[in-house]
Structures are given as structure tokens and as C-alpha cells.
Amino acid sequence: MVNIKELQPESSPEAAFGARLRTLREARGWTQDDLADKTGYSAKHISAVETARRSSTLRFARSLDIGLGIVGTSNTFEREWREIRHGTLLEGFPEYVGHEARAAELRLYEVGVIPGLLQTPEYAATLAAAAVRRGAITPEQAKERVALVADRQDALVRKPPPLVFVVLDEGCILRPIGGPDVMGPQFDNLLRFAELPNTVLQVAPFAMGVRRPFHLPITVLTLPDRSLMSYAESTQQGHLERESAFVLPILTAYHQFQAEALSQAESVALIGKLRRGTP
Q: How far is the C-alpha of 115 from the C-alpha of 173, rounded, in Å?
């Protein structure tokens, strides 16, 4: 008789992940070999995750969702993986990232720093290192934040790619993060982003003054079913808004904002000028 290791889901988030995986697998009457056939991973790998000897990856979590037939539900393993991986982030943000990854259109406005979807690894690492020095996060959490930037940017290259509209407050490109060796490649990355066929990049100059409708970062997502969702952050938490009555005015204000901001050609010229001044 096979010796089945007793699980202790309360011992860690990874153990809870593994225990839930075993529960769903056994509820379907499947062996680990059966699930291996459906996910493309070995039974040994599945066993290691179930017993928390191995942590799940994003790819493995997505394979589980497909194999178990729970893609698109409210309780996927991908969502649980993101909650485990990014538990140090603002409340509400991990849930937002899950929606971001499947959105058909993204409209975002950022203040002060280049948004994560457009950050280079060096820029992201510089921001994370500064948070470590302030004592806001641990070095391990800093590594997780940098990894999250790369995970999120996968959304830009999926097939078909989403439409991505970005308005940057002028402070995002004027604020030096790290030295020229960080800002130079970051400017290059912005210019490459603007050249993509599915993107629009604009800068909102300081001269807009009170014509700027937003004072905090804001994102509006259009999901594949054409429903809308907005996300905004305060100091302590992020807020997802799904009610169209509240999201539509934000979308309208965003469109007006784009009309007032510099055109993409003007924005690219400004970024290019800054780049030429960076060794």
C-alpha cells in the first residue's frame, strides 16, 4: 500500500496550495499520473508540490487550472499563486494583476515613476533596492517585486497582444532613478514601447496644471467580454471598481486627458531629447 504523506495546510501558504491541489485531484478520482497526463508535468513534480517540498511556478499553476478545468473561475490556482507570491504588495493588487494579464485593452496613468509594465529590470531593481534600504521590504521581497515586473510584462507579448495606452506624468521621465546607466536604457525602453503597433505613449506636461483630471495613478481595463474595470491605489491599499456607473466617468476623463496631453510624436521627441542628454 502506498504511503500517503499527511498534509498540514495550516503550516504555510505553499502547504495550503498543495493540500488544495490534492483535494481537487482526489475529488475527480485522479491519480498523480492522471493529472500529470493532463498538465505535462511529471507525477513526481505534482507530488512534490502537493507535499510542499517544491513551490509552484506561474506556469505550473496555469497548467493545473487547464488540467482541472477551472480556468476563468474565481478560485484558480493562478490566483492563489499570485496571492502567495505577491503577498507583500498592496491589498487588492494581486487580484488586479490577474485581470491585467487577460485584458484586451489597458489604459493607465502614472505619477512619479515609470509604471511596472514599462520598467527595465535595472530600473525595477533600483526601486526595490531603495525600498530595502528604507526598511519597507526585505531583500527577498525585493527579488519578488522585480520578478513580478517581468511576469506582468508577459501580458504585452501574448497573442493577440492587448492595446496599451499609457499617459506618463512629466515627473516620471524627469525624476532620476539610479544613475545614467539606469535611466539611459529606461528611456530606450520607452521609445521601443512607443514603436509597437499595439501601443500609444503620451506625456502629460506639468504645464497642464489643473487640466489634469487625475492626481493619483489610475488604470482602466477592458476585459475580453468588453466589461470595464478600474484600479486605483492609495498609500495602504488598491481598489478595484467593477461597476460601470463608476468606471465610465473615469474612462471618459481618460479620453479627455489623452486629448490634452502631448501627442505620441511630441512625447517621443521629449523622451528622445532626455535620452540624448544621458550618457
A: 11
The domain boundary, picked from 85, 106, 130, lies at: 85
pLDDT band with cut points at 50, 70 and 90 for residue 88: very low
Neighbours of 42 (CB within 10 A): 12
Write out pLDDT tens, residues 171-204.
999 999 999 999 999 999 999 999 999 999 999 9
Helices 58-68 and 77-85, packing angle to 10 deg? 160
Model pTM? 0.69
The answer to whether residue 219 sits within a structural domain is yes
CATH number, domain with residue 60 = 1.10.260.40
Residue 72's pLDDT is 82
Residue 235 covered by a domain: yes
Answer whether 177's CB lies under 8 Å from 123's CB.
yes
pLDDT in tens, 242-263: 888 999 999 999 999 999 999 9
If one counts every other C-beta atom within 10 angstroms of the C-beta of residue 185, the result is: 17
CA 122 to chain centre: 17
Q: Which domain holds residue 211?
A: 93-118+151-276
What's the pLDDT tens digit per position in 95-111? 777 788 889 999 999 99
Q: Which residues pair with 237 in a beta bridge?
A: 91
Selection from 12, 43, 15 nearest residue 30 by Cα: 43
Contact residues for 47 (Cβ-Cβ < 8 A; gap 6+)? 32
DSSP character at residue 91: B
- Asked if residue 106 and residue 43 are part of one domain, the reply reads no
Element holding 17 (H helix, E strand)? helix 13-27
